[in-house]
Amino acid sequence: MKIKNLGNQGLKASELGLGCMGMSEFYGEKNDEESIKTIHKAFDLGVTFFDTADMYGPYVNEKLVGKAIAPFRKEITLATKFGIVRDSENPKNRGVNGRPEYVKSSVEGSLKRLNVEVIDLYYLHRKDPDTPIEETIGAMSDLVKEGKIRGIGVSELNAETLRKAHATYPVSALQTEYSLWSRDPEDDIIPTCKELGIAFVAYSPLGRGFLTGQIKKFEDLEVDDYRRFSPRFVGDNFEKNIELVKKIESIAREKDCTPAQLALAWVMAQGDHIFPIPGTKRVKYLEENVKAVDVHLSQKDLEQIEEIFPKNAAAGTRYPEAFMKSVNL
Asked: CA 28, CA 33: separation in Å to the nearest integer?
């Protein structure tokens, strides 16, 4: 497991991180004990980049991650996010807030829940359409000066807004969805990050589990799994996307690896400034994912993958219509 510069503002992280969202919400039943074991195993295997957010749970994921990383806090890069507003009493209601006063109150809550003195990478989870990005980033830069965070991150910004943010204060990392079936960032976001020296953090690099080949039919999803409402997992879209995964499975067999490992290796092959953070709450899947760093794809392999799984091949949008309005702002 390589350790690389996470942007050009002094942060470092393992080439493969761990997304912790599903440990507390969205993907069926949770098991805190198994999740903590998974985080500990990740560290044992060389993972030093852990990703959470205040809205996961809401709030409880930060507490879980903070408890799990305590024994090795100083040896890892800890990332969390703010900006998506949820109410514990009514968690289905959501809003977005990037006002400076909210920035400063949110970080205090995250520091307390994580039980840490400083957050390594603090992301704006979604841009507030009613607050200029310069105001939000300006407030975040105050947190750097106060020693409460080490680096600034942003999520789901378009290239123009990213440039404005970076001009206000240097951005360490941008996070957005990126995988074989979500390749829009290739148009301008990934090149802009490379130009500006910003790390690109790829969330859902396994297509929310679809690219692993483990999901064979809609009924494989638990009744409380939010993917049951995701456009790519329902109806005709599901069937069309299954056919794409079967092709990936075929190449994976040729490479003597799993479809998940192939999908992660493909993401890592797209640029040295790209850091995938696959999420899992189970040790066995973590161990499988980490082995992706040993899968090397030749130019011929990449061309073969491109032929069977070209850009825009996936059927359906990556979020329901209402959620798509909050991304790429």
From this structure: 15
